[in-house]
Structures are given as structure tokens and as C-alpha cells.
Description:
3-stranded antiparallel beta sheet; alpha+beta; 11 helices; 5-stranded antiparallel beta sheet; Aminoglycoside 3'-phosphotransferase, Chain: A, domain 2; 291 residues; Phosphorylase Kinase, domain 1
Amino acid sequence: MRPAVDTRLARRLVDTQFPQWSCLPLAPVAPAGSDHVIHRLGGELSVRLPRHAGAIGQAEKEAAWLPRLAPHLPLAVPVPVAVGEPDFGYPWPWSVSRWLDGEVATVETLGDSVGAAVELAGFLTALQRPAADDLLAVAPGGDLAARPLADLDRTTRAAIAETGGVFDAAAMTALWDAALSAPAWDRTPVWFHGDFHTGNLLTVDGRLSAVIDFGGLGIGDPARDLMIAFTLMSPGSRAAFRAALDVDDATWTRGRGWALATGLTAYTIYAAVDSRVAAQTTRQITAALAR
Length: 291
């Protein structure tokens, strides 16, 4: 069951738990993401309240880890300011962060940009640092365990069967089998974003400015972050991205598998009710199949 979240509730939570901000105006941000209801608080802050149980760990996770990771990253990331507690019938922790200006990146503005592709490869290279020292220095915040691709096998095969009249079922099955059988990541576990797609990139004046939404942050195989190559990039910029990141064949194949699985999941859930999601996920699935 999803709690009802509106501006009145957000106002009460802020005013009672953080009275120092009670004088600041609060306004909903639209369109918000599928995981959080977002309000802008004054000119410098944002309030994020999870919509569903799958997003409830993000406030603590970002507060624990982003201050440690941010100094190593070449693009801005959220700056956590406070973590709020459940109250007034709202059941989960919520967060206050610094407001990040920018517009969501689009295929139209950045899809063909080799410069943007190389910049994103640089961001991932900086993020994908070995995690052992961080874990020793800071108490863990949230679940950082990497979910193996094989965990998605049942739902992905069901989605392939469901969408066989829209996409090439044989090609999807071949890619999925190849991704599952590709050699696993056997190097030092590294940090990954976990949900690295177009909707979590911000731009200012047409240039990349920030990466947001680290709810999927974890440690393990970085292949899942390759989905950005299939949600944002054209064949030319995708090739430049792969070369700049120096991705081996096995990791690239697993990355294609992540792009296929996540694209199919979103397509089966949202495509019938949201034409924008239908177009985005169709592009993602088609690009993953094309390599």
C-alpha cells in the first residue's frame, strides 16, 4: 500500500522536525519521479518522500555515502542535509538535500554527443573505485549488496514472452542467454550507481551538470551502469563511451543484459499507460539488441 503524500503532509513533517526551515516556502516539483514525491523548499533545498517501500532506504544510504564519494566525482551529486523520521501516518524515513539546478538529460540534446559520452565514462571511472577502504572507514548505510543478473531471469523471460509480438523474441532470448552465461565480474568489487539512466542525469545549458538518485548505489559488478549506453546514446557515441571506459566483452554483454531486463520490466509495467515510457523503453530494448 502506498501512503498518500501531499504538500500539507510534507509541510507538517518539515515544520515539526526541522523548525529552522518552517519559514521557507514549499512547492511540489512536477513531474516527479516514480519513486519519490519531491518538493522544493525555499531556493536551496529539496524534500524527497518515498512513494513505495522499494525506495525507503535511499535517505540513509545517500546520507551515509554521498559525502564520501562526492569529492572523487567530476559531476555534482546530491548533497544530503538531513534525514527525517516517520510521523503523521507517513511510515518511512525521508530526506532533505541541497537543490540541484538543471533539466533532465534527453536523447535529443545529448544522444549523439561524443563529448557527453566520454564525460559519462569519466564519471563512471571515478565512481568505480574499490570499495574496501570506504567500508572500513564508514559504517554501512543501507543495503549495498549487488543483486546478480540471474535474479532477474524469471521476470525477464516472462517479459520476453509477453512482448514477443512487439520485439524480436528470439533475439531477446539469445541476448539474455548470452548475458547470463558471460564470465562474471572476478575483480575487486567496485561502487556502482545502480540506476544509471537518462532520467537521473541533469544538464545546464545543454551540458551535463549532475547525477542524481543514488537509491541503487551498491558494490560489486559495474556492468549494470552500462545501461546509460542504451538509454541515452546513439551508435557513434556509444562506441566512444565503451572505448573511454575500456569495457571488456564479458562486461559489455552483461551490461546489455541489464539494459534488456530493466527495459522490459519498465515496458511491461508502464508502456500501456504512458507513451513517453513506451518510447524510452522501446529505444532501450532496441539499442541493447543492436549491441
